[in-house]
Amino acid sequence: MKEVRIVGVPEHFNLPWHLCLENGEFNAIGIDLQWTDIPEGTGKMCQMLRQEETDLAIILSEGIIKDITAGNETSIIQEYVASPLLWGIHVAADSPFQSIAELEYKRIAISRLGSGSHLMAIVHAKQMNWDLEKLTFVIVDTLDKAVVALQNKEADYFMWERFMTQPLVDQNVFRRIGECPTPWPSFVLVGRRAFVQQNRALVDNLLEVINATTSEFKFIPSIDRTLAERYNQKVEDIQDWLSLTRWSQRQLSKVNYDKIQQQLVDLQLIDTPKQYEDIKM
């Protein structure tokens, strides 16, 4: 039995992995898959890959591409979620801000530098034609700490996945004043380059298991109710989310890779672009 460490956010996108674990499907092919939830998100997972604290990660596409160009020795194994991520733009429920235009140059809560919440705040500011030099970021680590930061007026707005924050909106903790979808596939499965090179057959076997589950995930009986219960969501919100979400069973395309990297170059977040052939498994 080969132990393999994997990390991902504690969100509904990753339920297919947990179902495979609970069903013993990885054990059946000789893989002792050790899953760790990382509520801090992409920036923390990039750090863990660099420090060899994990072998694999389910991670935001733009975050890992930026970090790979900055020297992270990680390979993209496969696109995991092909659909865009829908980011909600949130303020505290009692915030005076009523429109996105009022957020120009206000303090942005982010989980950490290089995280999705950081990069997408910059993407959104660019779309709004705001001066990127004037953006101010407040590092909060996690969603729970973002709640505290907004309530205590330590930051003004926070961008996070729109459906995972829906309970906070329903509870009148956050107020959502806009949305910003990523213009590219949202999640990829990546691995430390040395690990992938040394365990290619194992990685291929692991892909067979997870791809079989994601390809039929939406057809699992009562999957909407299972998701709603596990992730504290309303069934109708989960049904909306499922209708928008497409899991992938193929490699991230060169077209999408180039689109993501070029956007990051245009935002001056990447200094040294990398060729597609150099980053994929």
TrEMBL record:
Locations listed in the record: Periplasm
Secretion signal span: none
Domain (Ca3427-like PBP): residue spans on this chain: 100-179
Protein keywords: Signal
CDD domains assigned to the protein according to its UniProt record, in alphabetical order: PBP2_Ca3427_like
Main location (coarse class): periplasm
CC annotations in GO: periplasmic space
Presence of keyword Kinase: no
UniProt xrefs under Pfam families: PBP2_Ca3427_like
Keyword set includes Signal: yes
Family note: Belongs to the bacterial solute-binding protein SsuA/TauA family.
Cross-referenced PANTHER family: ALIPHATIC SULFONATES-BINDING PROTEIN-RELATED (PTHR30024), TAURINE-BINDING PERIPLASMIC PROTEIN (PTHR30024:SF47)
Protein name: ABC-type taurine transport system, periplasmic component
Organism the protein comes from: Myroides odoratus (Flavobacterium odoratum)
